[in-house]
Amino acid sequence: MANRNKTFKIKDVLKLADEAMAEVTADEWKECIKHVIKLEQLFMDKEKLTDDFFEQVAPPFQIVINLNDDSSSSSEDSLSTDEEESLQEQATRLTPAGFPLIDSSSDED
Questions:
Q1: How far is it between the farthest Cα atoms of the chain?
Q2: Reduced to 3 states, what is the DSSP secondary structure of residue 56?
Q3: N or C: which end of the chain has fewer CB within 10 A?
Q4: 65-102 in b/e burial notation, b at 16+ Cβ within 10 A?
């Protein structure tokens, strides 16, 4: 169809599309439908895998900002060494594809 499009006018493109569709046989159309059904199933399977993965993987941590609190920090806010190590371990955990869940390399201390 692209080779036959000489005017680039929508009216002519629609005419060419109608002509091309008229040339499609019933068997070709059945094969297209089978192919689409296979692709839909593939996408549904992938979506289920993705949903299952994110249901199993908890976020590494949450950051909560209390807007009614002052900005000073106290010793009560400090994490223990074990808590810090646990957070660091979670931050460097990889997805099945090998990508980090978060980028811990940009942390500035």
A1: 77
A2: helix
A3: C
A4: eeeeeeeeeeeeeeeeeeeeeeeeebbeeeeeeeeeee
Residues 6+ apart with CB under 8 A from 20: 1
61-71: pLDDT as tens digits: 667 777 876 66
Mean pLDDT value of segment 88-96: 62
Domain boundaries, the chain: 10-68+76-103
pLDDT, tens digit, 9 for 90 and up, residues 18-44: 999 999 999 999 999 999 999 999 999
104, burial (CB in 10 Å: exposed 0-12, middle 13-18, buried 19+):
middle
pLDDT at 5: 86
Per DSSP (E only), the strands in the chain are: none
Backbone angles phi, psi at 24, to 5 degrees: -75, 125
- DSSP annotation of 80 reads P
Nearest to 1 by CA among 13, 11, 27: 13
